[in-house]
Amino acid sequence: MADTGVVESLLGLVEKADGGVDSLEAAAGLGVDHQLLVGAVKSLQALGDLISAELRSSKHWELSGEGTEIAEQGSHEARVFGSIPPQGLTQSDLMKLSFGKIGFSKAMSSKWIRVDKAHEGGPRVFRTVRIKFTWTVITAFSENRSSTRVLPAFRTVKSYWITKGSSFSTTITKQETELTPEMIASGSWKEKKFKPYNFQAMGVAPDCGHMHPLMKVRTQFRQIFLEMGFTEMPTNNFIESSFWNFDSLFQPQQHPARDQHDTFFLSDPALAHDFPQDYLERVKKVHSEGGYGSQGYKYAWKVEEAQKNILRTHTTAVSARMLYKLAQQKFTPVKYFSIDRVFRNETLDATHLAEFHQIEGVVADRGLTLGDLMGILHAFFTKLGITKLRFKPAYNPYTEPSMEVFSYHEGLKKWVEVGNSGVFRPEMLLPMGLPEDVSVIAWGLSLERPTMIKYGINNIRELVGHKVNLQMVYDSPVCRLES
Amino acid sequence: MPTVGVKRDLLFTALGRTYTDEEFDELCFEYGLELDEITSEKEIISREQGGSKASGASDVILYKIDVPANRYDLLCLEGLVRGLQVFMNKMEAPRYRRVRPVSGEPQRLVITKETAAVRPHAVAAVLRNITFTQERYDSFIELQDKLHQNVCRKRSLVAIGTHDLDTISGPFTYTAKPPGEISFKPLNQTKEYTATQLMSLYKTDSHLKHFLHIIEDKPVYPVIYDSNGVVLSMPPIINGDHSKISLETKNVFIECTATDVTKAKIVLDMMVTMFSEYCAQPFTVEEAEVVYPDGKTCKYPELAYRKEKLSSEFINRKVGINESTETLARLLTKMCLRSEVTGAGDEIEVEIPPTRSDVIHACDIMEDAAMAFGFNNIPYTTPLTYTVAHQVGVSSCTVGRALTLAPPAVHIANPKTAEFQVARTTLLPGLLKTVAANRKMPLPLKLFEISDVVLKDETKDVGARNSRRFCAVYYNKSPGFEVIHGLLDRTMQLLEEKSARGDGYHIQAAEGKKGGGGGWHFRACRNSLNR
Fold first, then answer.
1. Which stretches are annotated as coiled coil (chain A) (predicted)?
2. B57-62 long-range contacts, CB within 8 A, separation 24+
């Protein structure tokens, strides 16, 4: 609140005035800075209709800072003249003065001073004339005066014309901002006027923690899988052998994905050991010679390739381990899922990093069909609020048939890919020892992509990694996937 | 996914009708292809090198079509057209035949024992009385390139060489010699070079430099000569200029040298099935004979048609449809898998042509039937699998020995950048980097991470295991150790751990280094075991 004294004095002036009061005059009359008076006007306005203030603007000339300095202390050239003693002043000393530079050139051109360049100790400035100065104040300027040094400035001054408002009074009843326990105890709240709440401003942000959006989306997906009866797979092994990551999945050793360009190999520990030996032999056979109804790939399968350790390129390696374990006992149908990190040596760009999270679902049961895979995909994606799906024939080394899953994006008005799926090949399942009538269907998608779509993030580096935008993390809403 | 670029108008001419972009996109979708991009040469150059460089380039509309990685028969316009026409019932799949030469003996390619050290296998064939136009020629070269990129694994598994048969004379010899002893004029050069000189010459060639490593360090390099000592090629690097193909070429000798003989046969079959269309006798390929170091001979190309029998019940059961045997046989024929009802129950006999080397199991046939039926026509059903879900416990988190000296880390052999040389053994650097990148945020910054690190572990089959860690960082103008301490206490409280030496947790100062900036290192220890 502005200084109550000023406010009350102003009210007093308004009361006495005929018509109204000009704020500039009022300020001058009260001996206060005009801005202070404007403050008083504003606080009165906030209290209701005590006064009504009409904004006016007028223009007049004012001396600029430089102009004021000259009016008070003399022009630059006069001050230069004044500061030269009879014996003269070295030029370098003169230049050090604040008015030295401009003053020197002006005084030189008006021939008030001269320079002796050959003087010992450096160039020296002397007075040439005797001048007596008298001061005159220039009060009027014409608008068209052109000058290289603009001293006067054209200023717009805002003032108020203050008149009585509909609830004018010379006393101010202060509005309360808060109810206090004392007011309640004494009952005085009944007579108080309370300042209305400002609902336009923001409240105080609560001090709380925040989950990374990726974790929020991950929680939602996990929830969906659990609701559908899927059991979580233990995926706590980023390091995998090529055997489980590729060979057991019937991905040939010459496949481009097993290249240095796509996969991260380890130098230490470089090789895995301890494979289930007879299973390894069956895998070797199906790759190199065929069997289980297959022609095989007909190439020389090498155990050294299979031993190479890598950073896993997909969590399907874990699914393979789980299915192998399942095959070692009497078969029971299972539904598995995992959401965890995978690593690919790909070109990095706005939507690709070397590591990301893969979401995977697997169902193993007797007699599953391609129609069943579509059915379960429909159920899964419906929980994400996606109901319009289309399936496109695709290719994976370890599934046949394979399907890419597309959904219709209302905003973009086109079909976009939302996942990949397929039925695992017999060359993968049968060497494990699973019964022949057991079908295993699976699908997967990345976690980052739906997160970026949900939270409107265009560059993956802002989402993942140390360059994450913490403000985005603080501000991102609750994840509700059905919307 | 390999991408094939075809000129749209050529494609439509060959297909016998025009399509709108949407219609063609739809057709691709059904067949398992993807119309990835509609562009032109001018646009491509504009995008890659700037508008000024593109001024002379062609405006002709190009379709960039994504093709499944295992369909080598769809890597050129000829194959795409054939596949689509048969799919749309516009034509029958052609029958590819290996024929004997009209007169005289077949061309012979003699392999000597020296090749065993570097590139042991070779196959060959002849395209007789072929007619090239500029488009066919371009397509011919392009297919070789695509095959080299894909199934040939950048020429390391197989390399293709095509030659004008009328400029050379058999029998041909495939041998291997020390680089200094090989000398010829390579394609598009004006003088002769030795193989050693070629290795240096091509070090700066943007296309060829990637293949040099395949033979560079070997004591002998592969080379093919004709009976007059003319060099046909030095696989997998470059052909000789002498036998190069032109638009006027009428007879083509194709040779494929390889480290994998299965792939060599597939690649040869692809080349000849695709382009025998332009021979005077379409879809016939003249045989060539390969003589092995031990004297055995073999005729190529194989062009094998393999037969497989399966039941319509199998297809219906796996897909989840209920179609008659006759319908399924018809559907498969649409996919270039000519099929007939044998009459024995619901048995179908399927003939797998040489262009479909991707079909290796009955499930591949079943997929094609489903594709021809239309994936989106299959009714979807809910599997009746009853399961109860289980979660992996959160309590598999061990708050244990943090920050002992040099935890055993796993090293990456081919890291992307210097930042990724080891799999992380602690979460702290990541959090500190995040703080550094977010310094402008209002203080204090309180960050945490619960995630896995990787540690070497000889007891595991892969020699490493993940370890779940919990790390928290407090960043402010004042250190606030009590904040982190409080977080630890609260966490322990939630995990039902008492603050007590012995049967609970306690904090003790770590010996040795103090942290930078005068901070202290602490170790939180738990003597009771993880759950």
1. none
2. B60/B7, B60/B8, B60/B9, B61/B7, B61/B8, B61/B9, B62/B5, B62/B6, B62/B7, B62/B8, B62/B38
The ipTM value here is 0.85
Q: Which of A333, A326, A372 shows the shortest CA–CA distance to B387?
A: A333
Burial class (CB within 10 angstroms; exposed 0-12, middle 13-18, buried 19+) of B414:
middle
A469 to chain B: closest CA residue: B438
| CA–CA gap between residue A358 and residue A345 (Å, rounded) | 15
pLDDT at B518 over 70: no
B-chain residues near A324 (CB < 8 A): none
Bridge-partner residues for B165, per DSSP?
none
Cα angle B122, B123, B129 (rounded to 5 degrees) comes to: 140
Query: Distance (Å, rounded) from C-alpha B183 to C-alpha B240?
Result: 10
Are the C-beta atoms of B356 and B310 separated by less than 8 Å?
no
Read off the DSSP letter of residue A176.
B
The dihedral of CA A92, A95, A96, A97: what is its sign?
positive
| CB pair distance less than 8 Å for B317 and A391 | no
Rounded to whole angstroms, the Cα distance separating B260 from B484 reads: 61
Who's near A183: CB < 8 A, 6+ residues apart? A176, A189, A192
Q: What is the dihedral of CA A217, A223, A225, A228, to 10 degrees?
A: -140
Do the beta carbons of residue A257 and residue A263 sit within 8 Å? yes
Residue in B closest to A294 by C-alpha: B361
With beta carbons less than 8 A apart as the criterion, state whether B97 and B284 touch: yes
Give the number of other CB atoms < 10 A from CB of residue A124. 21
Q: Which residues of chain A make contact with B73, given a CB cutoff of 8 A?
A: none
Q: Closest Cα partner for B159 from B257, B73, B273? A: B257
Burial class (CB within 10 angstroms; exposed 0-12, middle 13-18, buried 19+) of B200: exposed
B130-135 mean pLDDT: 93
Of the listed ranges A48-57, B26-35, B343-352, B472-481, the one predicted with least confidence: A48-57
Rounded CA-CA distance B404/B415 in Å is 25
> What burial class does residue B204 get, using C-beta atoms within 10 Å of its C-beta: 0-12 exposed, 13-18 middle, 19+ buried?
exposed
The DSSP call for residue B228 is: T
Tokens of A223: 């929830």
d(CA A104, CA A99): 8
Q: How far is A177 from chain B (nearest CA, A)?
A: 29
**Order of strands across the sheet with A231-232?**
A231-232, A334-343, A355-366, A438-446, A414-424, A399-409, A389-393
DSSP character at residue B499: B
Task: Write the DSSP string, A184-203.
Answer: HHHTGGGT--BPPP-TTS--
Record: contact A269-B464, CB cut-off 8 A? yes
Please check whether residue A252 is in contact with residue A286, taking contact to mean a CB–CB distance below 8 angstroms: no
Contacts of B257 (CB under 8 A, 6+ apart): B115, B119, B121, B122, B158, B159, B161, B174, B222, B224, B235, B236, B264
For chains A and B, what is the number of CB pairs under 8 angstroms?
A: 226
Q: Distance between CA B312 and CA B345 in Å, rounded?
A: 9
Predicted confidence band of residue B520 (pLDDT cuts 50, 70, 90):
very low
Q: What is the C-alpha to C-alpha distance for residues B61 and B463, in angstroms, rounded to an integer?
A: 54
- Across the interface, whether the CB atoms of A368 and B423 are under 8 A apart is answered no
Is beta strand B231-234 parallel, antiparallel or unpaired with respect to B221-225? antiparallel
Quick: pLDDT tens for B58-84: 888 899 999 988 899 999 999 999 999
For A367-478, list the strands marked E by DSSP: 389-393, 399-409, 414-424, 438-446
| A415-A418-A420-A421 Cα dihedral, nearest 10 degrees | -90
pLDDT, one tens digit per residue, over B81-112 is: 999 999 998 999 999 999 999 888 999 999 99
Alpha helices in B1-76 (DSSP H): 8-15, 21-31, 41-49
Bridge partners (DSSP) listed for residue A483 = none
